[in-house]
Amino acid sequence: MAEQDFSKKEKNYHADIPQKSEAFYLKGSNGYDWGMRNRLARIFNPKSGKTVMLAFDHGYFQGPTTGLERVDVTIRPLIPYADALMLTRGVLRSMIEPSVTNSVVMRASGGPSILKELSNEQIAVDMEDALRMNVSAVAVQVFIGGEYETQSVHNMTRLVDRGMRYGIPVLGVTAVGKDLVRDVRYISLATRILAELGAAIVKTYHVPGFEQVAAACPVPIVIAGGKKLPEREALQMARDAINQGASGVDMGRNIFQSDSPVAMIGAVRKVVHDSSSVKEAYQYYEEMKNRK
Ligand code: 5RP
User: Fold this and answer.
1) Are the beta carbons of 236 and 278 closer than 8 angstroms?
2) How far is CA 74 from the centre of its chain?
3) 203 an active-site residue?
4) Catalytic-labelled residue, pool 11, 27, 47, 203
């Protein structure tokens, strides 16, 4: 039987304290339902408003990428340092412990390998399975200007519609085909299209003039690392991107192909979450790398 409230303590309605109603801290995300915002808050640290996503989904089109031959050996030690893990469902189920507390950003598009036309992707994960895996977002590649541009845009908009049903945000990734110039004009065009069509987060490359890209994109942008650079240069790129309006990084090769991946992801965290300068973060990298 339900118990009645027999407490002798006097009730206190705190009538003198107005109920707080604060705006959600992420740009462009205030209009979403609670579940969607909660998932975004699992990706973007509520204190800094930023994220360090660790991307290791490369195998979905290029097979055993250097540094990812054995995800269980090379990626597991990095997991405690990442806010979010960007990966495929195959790797999640086969190699990631279900006890991890990181948020999961699930690769949900695919199809062609590096041997074929990459823009010819389709949706590769059903939203119901994404829910079953308790993901915080799904990721889809969009090939603006590519051969299958419309198909890849349609993949994203269908995922956005399905994601809205369950409160799952979609991360739209601007994919740059081999014939497209990776410059501020192209990246502004692609990022804006993805945001306009419903991506809750956009992932793109850092280019000179990035502040214009970030300003014109109404939702949070995270930057990909791209090809492996010397560690100091990769930290500089992250620093510049954050200073110019990025909400974080979704970095892969510049972390897992580093001479010291644990030191590197720690240094990236310093830049993204602690406002460290490149000098401070690089010094941290060197110290951690040389620690026995
Ligand atoms: C493929 C992806 C990858 O996950 C990601 O961009 C690769 O990360 P990085 O460039 O930092 O190795 O989205 O397009």
Assistant:
1) yes
2) 20
3) yes
4) 203
